[in-house]
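For the sake of clarity, the format in which proteins appear in this thesis is described at this point. Each number in the token line that follows is a code from a learned vocabulary of backbone shapes. One such record is shown here in full, so that the layout can be seen directly:
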Amino acid sequence: MSLDDARIRIGVDIGGTFTDLSISSESGIIAVGKALTTPDEPARAVEEVINEALGRVEVRPDQVGEIIHATTLVTNAILERKGETTALLMTEGFRDTLGLATEKRYDLYDLNLQLPVPLVPRWLCFDIPERTHSDGSIAKEVDLDHVRRLALELQEAGVHAVAICFLHSFTNPENELAARRAIQDVAPSLRVALSSDVSPEVREYERASTTAASVYVQDVVGRYLDDLEQRLTRIGYDRGLLLMLSHGGVATVDTARHHPVKLLESGPAAGALAAAAFGASAEEPDLVSFDMGGTTAKLCLVEDGSPLKAQSFEVDRQDRMHPGSGLPLKLSTIDMVEIGVGGGSIARVDSLGLLKAGPQSAGAHPGPACYGRGGELPTVTDADLVLGYLDPEYFLGGSMALDPGAAKAAIETHIAEPLGLSLEKAALGIHQVVNESMANAARVHAVERGKDPTKLPLFAFGGAGAVHASGVARRLGSSKVVVPPYAGVMSTAGLLSAPLAFDFVRSRRAFPPDLSPGAVSEIFAPMETEGEELLGSAGVAASDVNHERSIDARLIGQGHEINVKLDDLTNWPQSARESFDAAYTHLFGRSGPPVEIEVLRWRVISSGPRPGLTLRPERRTGGQVAAGAVRTAALGPDSQMTESSIYDRYLLAPGDTVNGPAVVQERESTTLVPHGTSCVVCDDLSLVIDLNGAGR
């Protein structure tokens, strides 16, 4: 292809089961790819899928202008406890901060409550003589001799990473900085992370947990990025690599190495950005983003064209529906709920004789039983195959054949026989249990954020998203499902639409009436300057930098705060109060009491220009499945097995209508159109399913 008027960019996302890719030019998305993830060497799958896709469109690696990457590496390292042995240094008297946590039970009535296990065991948590007052004054300088002796002992014991979290270091980091210098003097091989650098915020438990997590995964991330950069160089790509951060911006490799914990939700964040971008182009600024892959499903609310954001996140939840059951991390992230159900989730009958699916996953190896790679346990993908939703000869466009016999045997042995059900009913039970779990999670997520999910369309993508979208939407009460083109790899489109961005936070307690607009600007100024410097080092001109300001504020006397955007400081403090009242009313459905507010944190997101991305793909024709074909699938009334029409998505044109029961197939995904519903192809080639059947 000619590159005279095209800028080639690649987005690649590593998931738990598949590694996805999109290639774009100025004309739109020109190629996509999907390959099984290689857990032993994650970068190998990236190299393979890039080589294959570039070869298909006859583009050389040295013609690629940019590669943007997302990965689940950080999440997996924490969940699987595959990080480095880490020690934690706390202010004297606060050694047990991680163990004590918040001293709250996330479920008062669960007698067998399971609490998250800290990344740092108690025997590696140490008291350090030092003290800083809340106003930043040093009450007691850090005992450097004590720190040096401890560093040598840790090094001899095989510890490789140290997290330092001293009381009130977010106000004055001097004692933390001095402790790091002391460690580096005697044990330079130890990796050291400071809470004043990683998470300069109030609340020492959350700050300590975040700092420990960041240094815990730092070596894993560093080795992975080294391997990936070497592989990209080997295939002929010699330009910079960018990585998606949890808050939806992209950053350089150096930033990712320094703050690896910010990569925690990079893949899910990319999917939410893609949903927002497509929703905006389709004049659907408010929607529910539903991303279901091989291992997990992610749900996110998009409001006014942007995904909702949060300033904290929990990883390794013991109960996915209960906040407080995981390890807290203080970082800016796109606000979403993640459920351990995907195409590879394993179905089972529990001790009470109830059908369950997930969170255990068959992963990429051995994968579902139908993959023919040694898996023997039934999964969601096996159930979807038995129900006729998937074509065993057209999975991944025919590059990977599925084994229906293996799927049937696994479900028959482990589900149908123990429950006394027929094969089809057992498979349908797996499918419906998964749909119910995702709908419940989406409903709770939406209501907690002041939204009515019945009034929002469901934007479905991911390899399994379009297969389950109609079932989830019906249980959620939504009447519309939108399935974008290239749904199976849509998160990679989010990578291609994200700007370079960095986020900053400073803790300073203040009452708005006590500060003038000039004083407020002085608080934000250092963060904005740092953002411009970092973006400038990546080639972004200062005039092109956008700063998004916000505060974390609360009513005086409350224990927690809400994030409030600040668009204008000229009318401070009145504008701050008005913005707070609006955010409070939106979240809780009523105005708050007439109590003054206080600010705890000041935040800035500095971002460069958003890359131009044409969302409509180039037309492709000549698919392997002809319109008018039929096969038996569970798409009839009450999900009965019935003859269903099969359509090749690549042959559908804007304005075409598909009436259910029908299956629309494409290389990376499959869309179900149940009995009594209709599907219309939009101008951007998205499929819009009307669950009320309008247009039939």
